[in-house]
Amino acid sequence: MAQMKPRTLSGFMELLPARQVQFDRMVEILRKSYSLYGFTPLDTPLIEASEVLLAKGGGETEKQIYRFTKGDTDLSLRFDLTVPLAKYVALHHNELSFPFRRFQIGKVYRGERAQRGRFREFYQADIDVIGDGKLDIINEAEIPAIIYRTFTDLGLKRFKIRINNRKVLNGLFALLGLEERAGDVMRTIDKLEKIGPEKVTAILRDDFAVPADTTRTLLDLLSAADPMAALAPFQGRNPLFDQGVEELSTVVKYLAAFGVPADHFMVDLTIARGLDYYTGTVYETVMLDHPEIGSICSGGRYDNLAEYYTDKQLPGVGISIGLTRLFFVLEDQGYLNDALNTAPADVLILPMTEDLSPAISFATALRQAGVRAQLHCEQKKFKQKLSYADKLAIPFAAFLGEDEVAQGQVTVKNLITGQQQTLSPAAGVELISAWLSGQGQAAPIREPEEA
Amino acid sequence: MAQMKPRTLSGFMELLPARQVQFDRMVEILRKSYSLYGFTPLDTPLIEASEVLLAKGGGETEKQIYRFTKGDTDLSLRFDLTVPLAKYVALHHNELSFPFRRFQIGKVYRGERAQRGRFREFYQADIDVIGDGKLDIINEAEIPAIIYRTFTDLGLKRFKIRINNRKVLNGLFALLGLEERAGDVMRTIDKLEKIGPEKVTAILRDDFAVPADTTRTLLDLLSAADPMAALAPFQGRNPLFDQGVEELSTVVKYLAAFGVPADHFMVDLTIARGLDYYTGTVYETVMLDHPEIGSICSGGRYDNLAEYYTDKQLPGVGISIGLTRLFFVLEDQGYLNDALNTAPADVLILPMTEDLSPAISFATALRQAGVRAQLHCEQKKFKQKLSYADKLAIPFAAFLGEDEVAQGQVTVKNLITGQQQTLSPAAGVELISAWLSGQGQAAPIREPEEA
To answer: Would you list the DSSP string of B348-366?
Structure first.
């Protein structure tokens, strides 16, 4: 038969089984962590009407989007989880209770140029709190606590959450007479870490006519060792600035109450998160040993989630983790914990008699006890079956030979320790259960030892 | 601002939060059930190269498929999880261990005509066991046990798994001289329940020249009260038939060992599962009180999973649940269990002092104990906040007023029983934890009381 060479599209992640288990474990931890903070799960279609998805329109988005027609309907694949959320909240407004706290973990699509570590299909893991008209500042303080807990639960230790407030920045620009150029100045300052202060000064002077001493004042402030102290002298001159400083103080104050250790967050006045979407607190999260990766969890406060769909004022605060890219980076940097149990089963049962009933009964008993069991009844050599267990890292094998069956027993072998004993099926179930619960579940991320 | 009316495409399910929790709970139970039988999770791209996805080509599939180009690449959305599995196994053959047992729960796309209960985007939940060259019959016997356990765990009681074997049917056709017309005869017989024996006889006689007495022999056999006994007289005349009968007997024999109650399965010789894909045991699962819904879980044994991609012989056995449609039907028929806890949080914390620190600490303590907690600090009236908890069915509220804060205490109210007490935060955590663990987790399906 003429065959088609099987292949997976470039930019589309497809994992081997053990890696998939590791990825799924990360998703499970995210779900659990988000749930503990009272977020409800949401699942929206991957396909939306193009006019709905592109209501905001313009820019990079339209170039990258997967857009096509089916019949005479103009369709697009979602490129993030925020626009579908805006649609959802506007559409179901009357059936939701506010504040509406939802998490969504799902695939999104962007036709980016194919290159290493760039994905066209990738998971985002988002949380958002949406208010109806108003939303208290406490929500902005809680978000870093969720980031802290989530990454800690995943097993990451050396990371830092950077916090800023857009009102502080915007107020500052007003104070310095840069109001009209705020967007341009912010976008330029956003590049500070990448291109350095000289180039920022030059761009601001040449392209936006910002005097060099104004830039110096600005950069001194932005790079101050104690940002809150550095902000103090500017207070009392601009209400927006003052409000931003107060919000930032409040967020910092409550972070301790939320249990975020002081070495896991910092105020960083250089963070602007581009564009015009965010209006209050903004967040970035960096891996201390891999700053080159950039932020692994970002977001912020916005004033109007769904202005393209409704007149209702829906302020919110949210963050997003680019999960597929994070997983790729973690694997690349050796951060995936190989101690995680990625076996498809806890026990491989090897019947060695014609009648399989005792083996089947043992499998059923194990499963009743919550132990993952696989019967291996294929016509293969005993050695091949053990090698199968070894390759899949299955921790236990159970043998049911003539002797065991005659005596109503089973031989259980711990394939890690090599220990083996013959005992009743019930005792076998207990032995295996006890060992498994003693192991616990390892975190999916383990930081490499420091050099 | 000019606004776009928000809408969700027809044929695309989008659930409200409480329903979404119910759906997710079903998915969680499926994942757990499949895992207990040693299946590993898999996740493949939703988009594949069209030539890969359509390697088999032809038929309804091509008409319904979502196909489009991006740049100059011809892409398609997957229409099932079997073709991507075939591609995956052919592509990663050298890196997998066989038998390869995988489950996959994911969305698939078919551009069907929009009508009630028909979905264009829907979840399938599949399991398959793939052998390399060979695959033992025990796998075919284990599948109904997995179906039984899965639906039982979901909370469904009145269902029956119908089992047949394609070798029995094919052998029988050979015995009756219908070999050349086997496909046509099977497809016609597949309609027996829908159109009745008279019409089947007429179609077989008029369209396929099957003598009426042959049809009568066939239909008598197919509708026999004791199918295995009815098959006996035909044995010894056709090797394929004999092998099929032996396989069917083996499957039935082991079902008891696997713990499937006799009233939850039956041999049904009328089941053919259309087309030419299946070669051994085939399955359908019906809800006893809703036969009109058709099979809610179907599948069978096939000899060659990936013949369009590889010369390797990859026999397998698998089943698929159309989860979105099943969920729609269950809701429609009143089978969704309203006793399931669908609240986004277990406790709503209501601080009533300026300083939120004690409330935040209590929230943190609850979350550390695995209790889902939400702080409600919005500027709303006390009554509104309680009504919020009520609407979301949050079982507990915790109040921290001046008195509580002064005494380092918290008032916990069970919103279901109305009981309320003021106690230390630690005792509050314990009280709530104990109540929650006493509740357990209800099954997502509950059958309506019989009339």
So the answer is: EEEE-SS--HHHHHHHHHH
A235 touching B, CB under 8 A?
Answer: no
CATH number at A433 reads 3.40.50.800
Interface test with A, best of B1, B5, B8, B96 (most A CBs within 10 A): B8
What is the tens place of the pLDDT at every residue in B74-124? Answer: 999 999 999 999 999 999 999 999 999 999 999 999 998 878 888 999 999
The structure tokens listed for A95 are 């059936």
Helix (H) or strand (E) holding A281: strand A278-287
Q: Are residues B300 and B351 in the same domain?
A: no
**Quick count: other Cβ atoms within 10 Å of Cβ B241?**
23
pTM of the model: 0.95
Of B36, B41, B379, the CB nearest to A24: B41
List, as ranges, residues 318-337 from B with C-beta within 8 Å of A: none
Regarding whether B170 and B273 lie in a shared domain, the answer is yes
Same domain, B130 and B166: yes
Number of domains in chain B: 2
Determine, yes or no, domain membership for B1.
no
- Among the partner residues A3, A371, A392, nearest to B308 by beta-carbon distance: A3
Q: pLDDT at position B181, please?
A: 85
Q: What is the pLDDT of residue A275?
A: 60
B306 and B415 share one domain: no
Q: Give the range of the structural domain holding residue A182, as residue numbers without chain letter.
A: 17-332
Is B131 found in the same domain as B62?
yes
Best mutation target among A377, A405, A432, A441 (most B Cβ atoms within 10 Å) is: A377
Interface of B with A in 252-291 (CB under 8 A): 254, 257-259
In a domain, A8, yes or no: no
Bridge partners (DSSP) listed for residue A397: A348, A413
What span, in angstroms and rounded, lies between the C-alpha atoms of B406 and B429?
19
pLDDT above 70: residue B451: no
Same domain as A354, residue A328:
no
- pLDDT band of residue B132 (cuts 50, 70, 90) is very high
Contact (CB, 8 A) for B227 and B269? yes
Chain A CB contacts of B312 below 8 Å: none
| Angle ∠(B427,B428,B433) on CA atoms, nearest 5 | 100
Does ipTM top 0.90? yes
Cβ A133 vs Cβ A24: under 8 Å? no
Query: A327 with A352, same domain?
Result: no
Q: In order along chain A (451 residues), what is the average pLDDT of each group of 10 residues?
A: 88 97 97 98 98 84 90 94 97 98 98 85 98 96 97 96 94 90 81 87 92 90 92 95 97 92 94 79 95 93 94 96 96 93 97 94 96 96 96 97 96 97 98 92 85 42
Chain B closest-CA separation from residue A421 CA (Å): 23
Verify that B275 and B360 share a domain, yes or no.
Answer: no
Chain A interface disruption, residue of B94, B96, B138, most A CBs within 10 A: B138
Question: Which positions in chain B touch A111 (Cβ < 8 Å)?
Answer: 70-71
Q: Count of A–B CB contacts within 8 Å?
A: 252
- For residue B287, the distance in angstroms to the closest alpha carbon of chain A comes to 24
Q: Where does a domain end: A332, A360, A389?
A: A332
The answer to whether A445 and A330 are in contact (CB under 8 A) is: yes
Residues 6+ apart with CB under 8 A from B410: B358, B362, B398, B399, B400, B404, B422, B423, B424, B425, B428
Contact B12 A97 (CB under 8 A): no
Q: How far is B161 from chain A (nearest CA, A)?
A: 19
What average pLDDT does the segment B208-235 reach?
Answer: 92
Stretch among A111-125, B33-47, B392-406 having the lowest mean pLDDT: A111-125
A 160-199 near B (Cβ less than 8 A): none
